[in-house]
Amino acid sequence: MPEEEISDDKIVETVKNTMEERARAQSTLKETQELLQRANTEHTHLLDSVQNWAAAVRRSTDSLGASGRLLTHIKQQIHVLEVSTFPISLRSIYFSSLFSI
Questions:
Q1: Interatomic CA distance for residues 16 and 25, integer angstroms
Q2: What mean pLDDT is reported for the chain?
Q3: Dihedrals phi, psi of 7, to nearest 5 degrees
Q4: Contact 46, 87 (CB under 8 A)
């Protein structure tokens, strides 16, 4: 048994605060779920782009293997890859590895 009685006003205030905290938590949860869904969509899009880019790189590598690694052939393949849709930050990785072959 508590040492002192809790007033009705204190109980009402506690319930009100609890309900407000619950509403904020639900709002935060909904926002987090939306962010997660957006991140999953972007992740899927990025994976698709990576797969398309990898296929383009394989085609370019095969083409260079068949036609030789002359500067004109390399420039043609670079142009093909430049117009591909893929994040620019990852393109430089391929181009630097292309010249180290």
A1: 14
A2: 80
A3: -75, 160
A4: yes
Q: How far apart are CA 86 and CA 101, in angstroms?
A: 22
CA 41-46-47 angle, 5° bins: 100
Non-local (6+) Cβ contacts of 77 within 8 A are 60, 63, 64, 98
Full DSSP string of the chain: --SSPPPHHHHHHHHHHHHHHHHHHHHHHHHHHHHHHHHHHHHHHHHHHHHHHHHHHHHHHHHHHHH---HHHHHHHHHHHHTS-S-HHHHHHHHHHHTT-
pLDDT band at 97 (very low <50, low <70, confident <90, very high): low
**What pLDDT, in 10s, does the model give residues 30-61?**
999 999 999 998 888 888 877 887 787 788 77
Quick one: pLDDT band at residue 20, thresholds 50, 70, 90? very high
